[in-house]
Amino acid sequence: MKKQGLMFVVVLGLLGPYGWSKTIRVSPGGPVVSIKEGISLAGPGDTVLIAGGVYREGNIRVTKSIAIIGVGAPVLDGEDMYEIFTVSANNVTISGLKLQNTGIASLDDLAAVNLKGCTGGRITDNELEDTFFGIHLTNSSGVVIENNRLRANAVEEHQMGNGIHLWKCRDVTIRGNRIQGHRDGIYFEFVTNSLIAHNHSEQNLRYGLHFMFSHDNEYRNNAFVNNGAGVAVMYTKGVKMIDNVFSRNWGSAAYGLLLKDISDSHVSGNTFERNSAGIFMEGCSRIELHDNTFTENGYAVRLQANCYDNVFEHNNFSANTFDLVTNGSLVLNKISNNYWDRYEGYDLNRDNIGDVPYRPVSMYSMIVEQMPTAVLLWRSFLVLLLDRAERALPVMTPENLKDEFPSMKPHDLD
What we know:
By secondary structure, the protein is mostly beta strands. It has a 25-stranded parallel beta sheet that branches. It has a 13-stranded parallel beta sheet with strand order 3-6-9-12-15-18-21-24-27-29-32-35-38, with no helix packed on it.
């Protein structure tokens, strides 16, 4: 008898904290036709399966730890008035749904899925279309946002929220999502210890990714393409930006990556191609930038004079209008062993390291920094004479901003 009692306790433990779970099926032709009714019938640990159809139920509040899963691509329509899911329970799963047409508000961040104060939870494999905010997290942790497709048609910033928006969160994984047409594709504020990987953020009105005061996060294998500006990173430390693509972010104030007041960070293995500026750095310190590719940018790197103790090493620079520019004469950064396609030095001992230093800052780029309209003289004979004279007798370009060991061949960064 004692053995039977012990076995019963073991079985209960294996079943988890909710005991036996059940499945509630919602469908337009079934006994349960309403998602809200299905949720009301579910208990913690249960699953609500939603069959194909169009559901217009206003704001759906989820206060239980349940799974809400679509089968056959069901559509939940906010009718341009409502937030669709408001979640205040831990470990909620929302998957396989099409969420569309949320309301728009000036005071409330209405979203297709809004998690408030939640621990755990998964938002996966959903399609979001024409939502004000797509996925919105506040004071939440341990949430996984994966393989969602978010599409909107932002025209003015005040008419559209962000695709994926996090405020005061930690330990969040954002992976494999595609975001298009929002104000910012991904926006963070006070977010820590999170992973952002394999996302594609394109044609967003302002930034592909924008975050502030968000320390110790890792951004890996993402693509930020053809946004108002690529990525803006502000007032943050411990950033790891690895193996991302920053491409075709054009405009008078656009860049692939803005680093403003960033410290103790790591930028490596990234590709910066066809941006107005590949990287713009202001007030940055102790950042390691290596194994990056800069190609066909207006400016590859714009390094403000208030940056110090940064290291540029083992990068490839090719076909950029300007490889490196600065706005001051005192530059306290290290530049070494990069490949520069404009380097005209020699390598007598054939060790693939140039025998004379390379100064990537041209006299013409210094003039353009002080007088932007001078860019109209680009490719003129006068500019050629100026730069040749400055290389022979440098007087305007910073003396200590040079690569002492330039590479003769492009680095193999694969």
